[in-house]
Amino acid sequence: MENCCGLLTSKKEPVPLKSVEVELEVRDHVATVVSTLNYENKEDKPLEAVFVFPMPGDAAVCHFSATIGQTQIVAEVKEKQKAREEYDDALSSGQQAFLLEESDQSPDIFSLSVGSLPPGESASIRLEYVTELAVQADEGLRFVLPAVLNPRYHPQGSEGVQVTSVPASLVPYSLSFSARVSSPRPVSKVESNCPMDPLKYLNTEQSQAMVKLAAGHKFDKDVELLIYYKDAHQPTAVVEAGQTSAKPGTLMGDPVVMLSLYPEFPQAVMSSLASCGEFVFLLDRSGSMGVPLNNNEGSQTRIGSARDTLLLLLKSIPMGCYFNIYSFGSSYEHIFPKSVEYSEKTMEEALKKVEGMEDDLGGTEILEALKHIYSQACIPNQPRQLLVFTDGEVGNTKEVINLVKKNSGSHRCFSFGIGEGASSALINGLAKEGGGYAQFITGIDRMQPKVMQSLRFALQPAVVDISVKWDLPKRVSVTVLSPPITTLFQGQRSLIYAQLTGQSPKAAEGSVTVKYSLAGHPSQNKLHFSLKPAEDSGLTVHRLAARTLIRSLEMSTKAVERRFKDPWCAEMFQHSVKAKPELPRRDPLLQLVSLQRASGRWELDPAVAAALGKTSEEVENTQPSEVNKEVWATILALIWLHGFKMDAQEEWELLAMKAVSWLRAQNAPHVTQCVEAGNTLLGCKVQKDALGI
């Protein structure tokens, strides 16, 4: 398989890239990225070259320039077809010309036609874009600079831009990377998967900081930054002044406000999660899922981690729900012909099938699997929740996202990008258009906590009747630029962009109120903010607001069906027959979880005793008299979870709730005595109240 990445000639042959310099500026929740790409033509003839590079799918390109020798070219935004015609005319007349355009298949791949590059000449490309930063489960803001996107699988009969990753020894260029972070709140820490110089604070309030990539990085993997602020979940508003040269009353001439809202749902509603729903799990089984989750020695494979995650999910589904599991590659499979009711029998049958799932289905064609899922009739009074696990390497991203959008009225879609190189356009697009939530699992991340957080979101009742009300001074009017909010989850950020027109008095304030209904309970959250624009804020918020407006207009336009003539590639992965490796000893937590029954109980048998680190005799001999064996085993399991696995509580919290519900239904006697005996046996000091029984 050829390496089709970086700067390429029209024959897809690489042009040497010398260096990449990246400057990142983060202001609260948004980032400005300035990349400078330096390369040269070492051939003895002029080259027409194309540079293929990735960026976030929701980014807004705001500057592009190219310098060849003493000549500098600055890009102008033009209608796509007209720009292509002018580019062709310039080339045919022997002029230097550059053309930057977004891939039709995936919005996170841009291709740059740099045109005629003379022999021996060096060129420098400067690209600037702005993007919103995604909030992670632990409230960190995630920025990723992709090295080169991993191989994108193109369905048979399609063509498109192909980009691949390359080993470190073959990376022909170096990278320098620096980041400056500022926020109304203090910056508590910045973490990275790559060696970084120590974090340097720029003021006493610690609200401004700077960090640099350590010298010697070869850009052989994604550079990931996680930025943490104090009180990150508090709602904020950033008002940005308009461009002084632009006309008042226009988008660029007026101030723009960006609201970051974090709804807090009433505790009474949140304590009663839904006990119904149809859960459809869609698992990527393409060849790329067989690689390790990270670069650490002995790291679990992506497919192995996904299998463990499905175990936790299947144990955590409430009784009375329905479920099914699909897997896809070049083709797709499903465990049941249609979703089945969750029971001991169906759970065990599904788990046996999951244990045998490998990365053996070839390429990554997710579209047909989704079409089959959507062709199944929804089950009355069982809201459909779709959870998609993929390393995000598909070539027809826009077509997939449009299909999810078309069916958004009948389900919610939760997506998980696994491993470095997962397409942010695909993962974020699935969740955004499907009314769900997106998660990325990279570096040393464990998949399970993030997936279980999304399951909790999926169990939250859907928020309906969402409305946004603005309260502003008399002479100020508001034009909302963001599409209407259609989904809200506890603690999930929602960004709203709006244009403020008119003169506001000094020290004026405004407010915005978000009203909604949750499980029949009307609720609202209100945020007050100053209308005074922030000083020296540039135009980052304006550019993202414009991008949001353009994207919403694009999505409202009917998609044009495309037909492709020649197959770009038939199969990206070849598999040799290999002996199944010996399975490592299962994690003690997963071992105990695997023995839980669908109802939430555990049974007293040697396997459960072993998972608790005891012999059958030790467990049986300490059992209080007049106590049911299953009650005793279930209480022991709960004590063990609380006593030894509190650091992984997010992973077992839902299945423990099932166990507690089962215990309460038994109305068992001597529960206090059982807890005391269990603590003595296991060497713990867990209080009965902490167990919830």
From TrEMBL:
SUPFAM superfamilies: vWA-like (SSF53300)
Entries under Pfam families matching the protein: VIT (PF08487), VWA_3 (PF13768)
All residue ranges annotated as the VWFA domain in the record: 278-455
InterPro entries assigned to the protein according to its UniProt record, in alphabetical order: VIT, VWF_A, vWFA_dom_sf
Cited SMART domains: VIT, VWA
Domain annotation VIT: ranges: 1-131
PANTHER family documented for this protein: VON WILLEBRAND FACTOR A DOMAIN-CONTAINING PROTEIN 5A
Protein name as annotated: von Willebrand factor A domain containing 5A
Organism: Pogonophryne albipinna
